[in-house]
Protein 1
Amino acid sequence: MICYFWAMEIPELYGIFKSSSGISTDTRSIKKGNIFFALKGDNFNGNLFAQQALQAGAMWAIIDVQHFSSQENLILVDDVLRTLQQLAAFHRNQLKAKILAIAGSNGKTTTKELISRVLETSFSTFSTKGNLNNHIGVPLSLLSISDETEFGLIEMGANHLHETRLLCEVSQPDYGLITNNGKDHLEGYGSIENVIKGNGELYDFLQTKNRPAFVCADHPELMSMSEGLTRFIYGIHSTMCRGRINSLFPFLEIVAYDGFMESSLTLKTKLFGKYNFENVMAAVAVGQKFGVSPENIKSSIESYVPSNNRSQIFKSGTNTFILDAYNANPSSMIAALENFFHIPAENKIVILGDMAELGESSTAEHREIIKALENEKMKLKIFVGEEFKKALFESSPGFMHFKNVSQLKTWFDCQSFKNYFFLLKASRVMGLEGLVQ
């Protein structure tokens, strides 16, 4: 049977979804009873794999090319991606869960994970898995939320204007949080001004719906952008959920106070870096707002261990490594370097890989990173990738450059480093974690 659905028939498609075993967009991970959405991209066309999905156990396949609609259990739609987004929006409107959207340039995933740890001590909680945070990932995340879920944490990753607005329209968040504004995805945004405007689309949505935001008081820009919203404010300069850094090494230790200064929590985290302070405080603020006990806030934050190459600290023999190779942009790289500069260690080596998606600003931004290192005393300053090669000056004493991680590893494995402290940071595309894994 061949069916054809327009947007107005999404409720009927929703009935099919509710009787299915879930959504899949990849024939390699089809489960029996799935609905396969044949998404298209620059280098792939899911319509070509619709029959394969059905043979693998999918109950239905959603396609948008008439040419492929010649067999049973196919649903022909005008646009597969738009249908996926509409289905997710319809599902979201049936849910009882409160949705907290987390946007921003840096720290989104760590903030989401910390908040999730705090909330799940008291509520049935769902949070975005992996990197499912874009125009495809957010709908897939929403469609994974069950009727029993009480809180849904939706991470929103955008690389151009109006994408966060779309994600808000689909997910209809009850609360919002912007971590910060930084120089991320400049290739798509075009400028830091557009980054700020793009992140601010979350506040714009909340404003139109009269819904509140969690705002870090330590970012004057965010405080200004969020004026007029109902706000739950956290940070060093907050009077609602205030905190301070007790120590930075070997891990971040924070003292957090409630709004009336009647009690405090000392949080001994397993996180590295001053920049994680506001991520932790966001989790404290959300926990306080929703009545999570101080004991549960403390235990959930203190037990969190970063993973997936995000600010991971580990020892190998006598050497210590900070592995932060999941993502990098000029703002996050400078923050990581500033923390590394202040580590009380004698033998320090910094290894930096290219930052992706910077467009025409790439050479200038990589050069700024090099300048930030010029006067710092390090045993070695190592750069990897073509973008750093373009940015390196003719005479850069103390600097080394490798074309790729494979070349670096060949050299690295021949060295005899003992009692060194390493920082490894790069965009995910570089695969810098391969140096130590």
Protein 2
Amino acid sequence: MNGMHMVDLDLNLLRVFDALHELRSVTRAAGRLGLTQSAISHALGRLRTALDDPLFHRSAGGLQPTARALEIAPGIREGLGQIRGALAPSLFDPAKAERQFAIGAASYFCTILIPDLLARARTVAPGINFLVVNPLPDMLAALDEGTVDLVVGAFGKVPARFLCEPLYREELVWIASRNHPMIDDPFFARRIVEQPRLEIIAGRPTSGGGAYASAGGLEWRVTTDSGRSSDRRIGVYDAGAAVRLVSQTDLVARVPRQLAMRAADPVNLAIIEGAPRTEQVGMSMVSHLRLASDAGLSWLRALIFDTLPLVLKDVDAD
């Protein structure tokens, strides 16, 4: 080797290598580690000298690792994980802890879960603060960079570097205003797909009739209904907006049952049971595997699991 010896490699250089290998970007690595891009480039230069290998080549798709970088990456990641585990506090006392958690949650979970979660947390962990953020458009980068601790939603493909924990299965149901002109027709449920309808339009369609909005590589399930029984369709951006608009029009829509059940009493809304094209959707919680030993995040994930039975109605747990 030229220059420094292997024994001169310090922990910070290994952290830089691990971030560059995962993120394939000097800019993102700098953001995650709290360093300047110049510092990242300097550290990469030292690594190249120490290991006598370029390690990464620039391409249109970002940094591409060399064969040597691919060879050493798993061992470096495992070693860094062991060090983090050894240095992490063995206990997390929510009653005394002072910390902020950032949760990615769309309007659905802000209605179903977040209010009760925050209420419980304020009781048992008064020093914990929360930031609830919109999960799009680039939640994957936010999880990678640590600006978001976890995200809840309905997902398609989840990259292997994340922990995806099933929460429960939700049903998509048809809704209509209680003043709909056909609400008392005994054949309304059977003919609901023929009615003028409001669609939740987001993401790209899939063969299963749903859709996934790409969140920087994390596929986010949305409730788009792509049936063609009626050409009389109007689009809206999310299920919460659909519930509000359907209650005041003669349109119908397909939305998550939990959301519809909470809206049925305060607004003029009916769930149309027995209608075709109902569908089960899996809801999950996603966090980064590198934080698996984080006692505080483990507490938050457990609190979410403990809160769900208190807020859900008539669902199948995963």
